[in-house]
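Readers of this paper often ask what the protein records in our data store actually look like. An entry from our holdings is shown next, in its original layout:
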Amino acid sequence: MDTYKKLIEERIKKIEELKAINVNPYPQIFNKTNNAADILEKYKNLDKEEKTNNIVSIAGRVMTLRGMGKASFCHIQDETGKIQVYIRQEEIKGQYEVLKKVDLGDIIGIKGTVFRTKTGEISVWAKEIKLLTKSIQPLPEKFHGLKDQETKYRQRYLDLITDQDVKETFKKRTKIIKMVREFLDNYGFLEVETPTLQTTYGGASAKPFKTHLNALNMDVFLSISPELYLKRLVVGGFERVYTICKNFRNEDIDTTHNPEFTMMEFYFAYANYEKLMAMTEELIPNMIKEINGSYEMKIGVDVINFKPPFKRIKFNDFIKDETGIDIDKCRDFESLKKEIVKRKIPNMNINEAKHYGNLLDELYKRVCRPKITQPTFLTHYPVEMIALAKRNEDDPTKINTFQLLVRGAEIVKAYDELNDPIDQRKRLEEQQVLLKRGDQEAMPLDEDFLNALEIGLPPTAGYGLGIDRLVMLITGKESIKDVIFFPFMKKKEE
């Protein structure tokens, strides 16, 4: 029998022994009134060996345990951190038998007084001890913790127990989302909800997840974007709306993509994309400075400076600077393809591009976007790239749009919303042609959405912020899996 199985059997045996002395290894409740961090802060000025008479009640997981004859020390860990507990056999006579069956990883409750040991550590002197949960599986080896990265993602609960930095990352994630909400609330936006299950998907160029609704015997889709529903609300008279929601896209999984991800989208009536760029320069730098203490932060080998204003460059100029191709002179699929081949542009999957917009996107994402490191607004995309964006009045071949790029990743996408129902119908009909040609990321035609536009959408600017990628930025993480509690993982082979 291997050591691991033997340890499990020993713990199961202890459960039976506890039951034999009428101790429930899984009691219903414990009155926890204090946490580790608050105790350490409140009593930080105690002198060595100074004792108090203040009773505290704490609970947490046993992370260290060592016996010293008739006394024992352990560290228990709760949500806020670790604290040491001192236990004397003679003071908990009826409970010492229980303590002898406690293992690392068990959850216990302690009532006692606070003191500082002669070595200077703030501790709790136990007066009562109660086993709250008997752990059957041992924790990872305490000095090395959980090292296998795949196991950290698959068993996030172990990762959180053994690595406090991971827990801090997710606390920051919650704080970031809260700050985004507060920012929009202060701007007068209303938080709303949109359907996750949709009869017609839309709002982005993405392959959807398809499922079947048995009750109505019809196929439905998981949302790839809340955009079309939020615009309906603007048509209905809500002038500033936002949602923080899950989107689902049946696409690649890599360091910046997860098939289920969190987005914040808002729609701002009577504003334009330039107003939204100003809001971006207000929101993101202030968040980074508040959380990290500076506009500058190191991510990997790069030092990123988020002090506004951000650099701005037009899409056409960016492509020309990086590849030498003037897309204003290559206005169709064949001419652009010919120029790419002529210049021997590397890393291009030309044969997978179905149309001109696809080819532009391929050129941009594979060749040019990775060249951007510092925060940069990329503006005025060609109209073929976003079917829902309004044309620029001075140059109708471009759209009033921007993306915020950092270290080759898209953090924000925003544009003036197309509110001309005739132009919108034409462009969605063009998408239908692409769908029939096999472009799985083209959008279907949503008649109800077009009907809403015909009722009348005021001039509106829309904004999408990738929450997961924003958290990656602010916490300095290199993979999206590090900022999602439960990232999607390939099914583990038995």
Remarks:
- The first helix runs from residue 3 to 20.
- The longest strand covers residues 51-68.
